[in-house]
Amino acid sequence: MIDTACALSIAGLMKSYDGTAAIDSIDLEVRAGELLTLLGPSGSGKTTLLMSIAGFAQPDAGRIQLDGRDITRLPPHRRNIGVVFQQYALFPHLSIADNVAYPLKVRRVPKAQRDAAVKAALRLVQLESEALRRPEQLSGGQQQRVALARALVFKPPVLLMDEPLGALDRKLRAEMQLEIRGIQKSLGITTVYVTHDQEEALAISDRIAIVHRGRIEQIDTPEKIYSRPASSFVADFIGDSNLFAGTLETAADGTTRFHSVAGITFPVRLGPQVDHAAAPMALVRPESVRVSPVATHDCPHRGSVKQVVYMGSTLHLQIATESGSVVLAKANPRFFDDIPGSHQDIWFGWRVDDPVLVRASGPSTAASSAASSVTSSAASPASSPASSPASSATSPIRSSP
Ligand SMILES: Nc1ncnc2c1ncn2[C@@H]1O[C@H](COP(=O)(O)OP(=O)(O)OP(=O)(O)O)[C@@H](O)[C@H]1O
Ligand SMILES: [Mg+2]
């Protein structure tokens, strides 16, 4: 349906409102045919960036190019970009077919051609049978599919979507994510998608750009963003995290240990990507945390169960460490003969390849993490496995593999 997918290139983009930067020098290359998601907290500048691309917001500085053509100063209708907003913004008095036909009417496309294009667009979103109904007669998900058909009917080279599923319930959102991704792939249309739902971003994107205070903090594949976050902000924003502030110490034999201010010391592997001078933090994902009723090689740290939340497919354990910080573990409940109870002693740890060293983004993000929120330098060092109490061997918890 789309004739040619276009690459979108943004350089040095700036936009301020009342002296405050909503976009603070953004450079971004969106590849032809990819679905790139802008993900970030409320107020980080996602909508402002999208509206600048669409032409509804005028940047103060910078350049936007569509396949090499400068569109920075073009009015929205001359950019020919398809846009879908969170609120479907359908015309209530028009039929579904007339809503979808609207962009073609504005472009003075002849009726026969228009009818064929509307039919094809409605077929694409599986709403051909609803053509003569009015928006109010459709469900929220159906209305958003109409909005998508309307955005695609004039074969735009680029599609922009701003929280298109924000108004839908969780189950419908999951269905629509797959549907949107399927349509986007089948058309091969270059798409910039805005959400603040991290699972949605991970599920549908070719690449994710993490937006923070008007800047792009990291742009990468979903897998890399999750497993190799560049900063503590990204690590904390995507998924749950145990983030430890601390210092690195490399021994004469070349092995490196991380001394966390939370009192836990553990070996780490140094990657080439980390600037070790820039206050490192160590990230351990909760699913990497292993627990055991007794001290083991992988579980050398002693703690006590602070809270247990059974989530069906996972068990979330908050473990209070000996120094008073909290480590979150997510485990498969099937690895436990009995679900551990509060205040029960537990041993925990992770493998040497699990911690990821990340750049510290600043105190605001560090404070939001459980593990890093306790910064007492007087915290006691981790217990050695040899101090394991014999009685805990009878605990109902099995070591997680
Ligand atoms: N029209 C406007 N007038 C004044 N300030 C604005 C305007 N639009 C956005 N801003 C400000 O610019 C910043 C970025 O807003 P933006 O709407 O781009 O954020 P967002 O990332 O889309 O947030 P959300 O996830 O809540 O939609 C915010 O501080 C916001 O208050
Ligand atoms: Mg927004």
Strand and helix layout:
Layout: E1 8-17, E2 20-30, E3 35-39, H1 46-54, E4 61-66, E5 69-70, H2 76-79, E6 82-84, H3 96-106, H4 111-124, H5 140-152, E7 158-162, H6 170-187, E8 190-195, H7 198-204, E9 207-212, E10 215-220, H8 222-227, H9 232-237, E11 242-250, E12 256-260, E13 265-268, E14 280-284, E15 290-292, E16 301-310, E17 315-321, E18 326-331, E19 345-349, E20 356-359, H10 363-366
Parallel strand pairs: 3-8, 3-9, 6-7, 7-8
Antiparallel strand pairs: 1-2, 1-4, 4-5, 9-10, 11-12, 11-14, 12-13, 14-20, 15-19, 16-17, 16-19, 17-18
Helix pairs in contact: 3-4, 3-5, 4-5
Bound molecules: adenosine-5'-triphosphate and magnesium ion.
Adenosine-5'-triphosphate binds at residues 17, 22, 40, 42-48, 196.
Feature tags:
single chain; 401 residues; alpha+beta; Rossmann fold; OB fold (Dihydrolipoamide Acetyltransferase, E2P); 2 domains; six-stranded mixed sheet; five-stranded antiparallel sheet; 20 strands; 23% helix; disordered C terminus; binds adenosine-5'-triphosphate; binds magnesium ion
